[in-house]
Amino acid sequence: MKKLIIFSLFILIMPFIVYGAETVSNELSLGENAKSAILIEQSTGQILFEKNSHEKIPPASMTKMMSLLLIMESIDNGKIKLTDKVTVSKNASSMGGSQILLEEGEEMSVEDLLKGISIASGNDAVVALAEYIGGTEDNFVKMMNNKVNELGLTDTKFKNCHGLDEEGHYSSAYDMVMIGKELLNHKKILDFTSVYETYLRENTDRKIWLVNTNKLVRFKKGVDGLKTGYTKTAGYCLTATMKKNNMRVIATVMGEDSIDNRNSEVSSMLDYAYSQYKMKKYISKNKVLKKIKNDKIKSKNIEIVPINDINILTKVTDNISPSYTLKINNLKTNIKKGDKVGMITIKNNGKVISKMNLTVKNNVKKANILELYFKYLRDITSGNMTL
Q1: Which of 75, 243, 295, 372 has its CA 20 to 30 A from that of 203?
Q2: How far apart are CA 258 and CA 262, in angstroms?
């Protein structure tokens, strides 16, 4: 009788157990058709969802995100300019796969080549710029792998700059989304990846129409990048980014079986992020957190600020009361704005939820003898110093 009662109770509660499990499963049934997937918030790097995110898989043309990162760095540090003219080599013009139909000896601006890469995923365009920056494609690929190491990524090895299948060329959803995160620090890239359609050589008889391979740029509000990919081995891949409600997220899927599934599953991941999480600005990058008096500098104080806005990511339903502590380095008398001078640690209920480097609000310069003399006189006359 006792066994019968227990069995009967189990039968009664079993539907509720199964329902509960299904509810949890359905809430996070993201990227079901992908071999691997990941979703992060961009400013914090916090992972919101992941599936087999460190599995090493061919990344197809998402490889070009690393190429674009090196290109944007070269532009930002002044090594190349958008207006530079690049002469197309035989190697670049002979690239197969997606292309913008470059011809050997043709000249095209860096800006137009960037359009060709970002919008149409042109293999010929990315090789042309790789050779322009690295001297040779092989040397550029070495630069790509050096950058992988610099970023601390361990799932990636590049053999080319375009993403066509090659033995030993692989990455992971985690590494791809982190490369995308780094690329987005160069905000100019969105001027290219957010364009749905445009033309190259518009006033010539070789005019070409570019249509973005990332259809979400047109059909999902807020999506403004980043990069698609496809080869027979890699399947359909996509790293997409979206900004809404002061929050930017990045989603990556790899190894999808169709474009429709790729787009649908990334779209669902993005929707999940905004339905479940919110971003709150906690401290502005202009807020002075500490003033440090220094008699040897031109100004009265060294003003310490965060190097960027400090945003806190929380669940939509959460209310938090964070606090912070500062750790200031031994400061010099010559400090440039942007130099790292310490660290701010933000905690909630004793748990670290964020860290950020500190810098100075304005450049700090050492005072010369004459400036020190007048500073000394001002302190005496203002009553800030006793004799």
Answers
A1: 75
A2: 6
Distance CA 309, CA 260 (A): 37
**Does 46 lie in the same domain as 184?**
yes
Dist. CA 95–CA 98, nearest whole Å = 8
CA 270 from chain centre, in angstroms, equals 15
- Lookup result for tokens 């009664």: 12
Q: Which residue has the tokens 């049934």?
A: 29
Helix ranges, 42-201 (H): 64-76, 90-93, 110-118, 123-134, 137-150, 173-183, 190-193
* CATH number of the domain encompassing residue 373: 2.60.410.10
Domain span at 300: 284-382
Closest CA to 363 of 306, 308, 309, 303: 303
Q: Are 147 and 71 in contact (CB under 8 A)?
A: no
Q: Are residues 297 and 248 in the same domain?
A: no
Q: Known catalytic residues?
A: 61, 64, 121
State the chain's mean pLDDT as an integer: 90
pLDDT in tens, 106-134: 999 999 999 999 999 999 999 999 999 99
- The Cα 310–Cα 355 span in angstroms is 9
The pLDDT value recorded for residue 383 is 58
* 189 secondary structure, DSSP code: G
- Domain boundary (255, 279, 303) is at 279
Nearest 10 degrees: Cα torsion 119, 125, 131, 133: -30
43 closest CA partner among 254, 175, 320, 241: 241
The string of pLDDT tens digits covering residues 292-347 is: 988 778 888 899 999 999 989 999 998 888 999 999 999 888 999 999 999 999 99
Q: Are residues 258 and 289 in the same domain?
A: no
- Considering the domain architecture, whether residues 135 and 191 belong to the same structural domain is answered as yes
pLDDT on residue 91:
97
**Measured CA distances, 10 to 6, 16, 70, 71 (Å):** 6, 10, 60, 62
